Amino acid sequence: MESYMKNTLPKATTLPPRVENVQIESKIIMPKLASIIVNWMNKKEADATRRKQDSLYKFNLIYRGSRDGIDSDSFRSRYNLQAPTLVLVKCQGSQKIFGGYSPIEFYNYNYGDRYVHSTDSFIFSFENNEDTQNMKLSRKLYVANKEGYYEDNLKDDSTYTIEEFEAFRIIKQY
Questions:
Q1: pLDDT value at 18 more than 50
Q2: What is the pTM of this model?
């Protein structure tokens, strides 16, 4: 009322409502990088501001290499074709993080030839857990003669050893 009587604007600033940060139980990435991945899942730019009306996601840890074993047999036995899935890999002796997202199951080819595809899958890399400048994203998948590969913007001639491996089932919450 005082501001109205003096014909001045109040000093209080109204801020937009805060959007809950992405929560993830990861030994590999922090919530800041998880928010970037969620933006990519929603086909937005990495630095897009999350809004109140944006979907929320729950990340259910279904596999951790340090707990369950870092080998393909352990992964296949526990994974059980759960989708959509986020996979994260931390490299030993480096801060490098690789990962991928797929809304469809990873099939075990011992069950016969199954061909599935999605335009929503992607792979990515971060130079470290604080990296928001040098991250790389590859959405485009090329397929020819039954061989497929993503565009080479993630190409790296280095050889890495896996330090930690995590897989999360993604549950969209409305």
A1: no
A2: 0.77
